[in-house]
Amino acid sequence: MIGGMKDIAFREQELNVWEELMTNKKVFRLEEVGHYPQEEATEIFIKVLKGKF
Description:
Blueprint: E1 2-4, H1 12-21, E2 28-30, H2 37-40, H3 42-50
Parallel strand pairs: 1-2
């Protein structure tokens, strides 16, 4: 799971709930990213998906 910490739709409190409910997870919090991490932090997003982050 990749969460942008500047997301106005899904804030940290929602991310925390999802994190508690999910099993077998990895959560990446991107501090300077908003609602669209795939567009705002493309290189990091790709590295996370490839398991290289």
